[in-house]
Amino acid sequence: MRVARNVAIVLVLAVPVAFTPSGNNVAEAILTALTMGLLAGMAWMIYVMSRQNQLTLATLSDGRRGILYGAFGLIALLIAGTDWMFASGGGTLLWLLLLGASVAAIWKVWIEANTY
Q: CA separation (Å) from 58 to 4, 51, 55, 87, 112?
């Protein structure tokens, strides 16, 4: 039953793209809506996590807090510049390296903050 529902969702999204004269515009609108939903979900997750871990964030040193917030900021900039950076092979490689570095920085700060 779940598979049928998922197939129906894909078909509902694909019909306007395939059968309307401005299908490319519809596809761009659908992709933009999905991207905005993803970004809103990520922002909500960061907000909830920061509210649940206020004491942990408050006890971080200024340097560690700067690294943490800087890594989240770098991820936001990477998302904003995805189209520009993916235009070349070197940009794609740099994007992946910067994403990995920011995730590693977040992971390291989080692990250090939660070890006793």
A: 47, 11, 5, 40, 14
Each residue's pLDDT, cut to its tens digit, for the chain (116 residues) gives: 899 999 998 888 888 777 878 777 878 888 889 889 988 998 999 899 889 989 988 899 999 999 999 999 999 999 989 889 999 999 999 999 999 999 999 999 999 888 87
| DSSP for 20-63, written as a single string | STTHHHHHHHHHHHHHHHHHHHHHHHHHHHHHHTHHHHHHS-HH
Domain spans of the chain, in order of start: 1-38, 53-116
d(CA 48, CA 46): 6
Number of Cβ within a 10 Å radius of residue 89 = 8
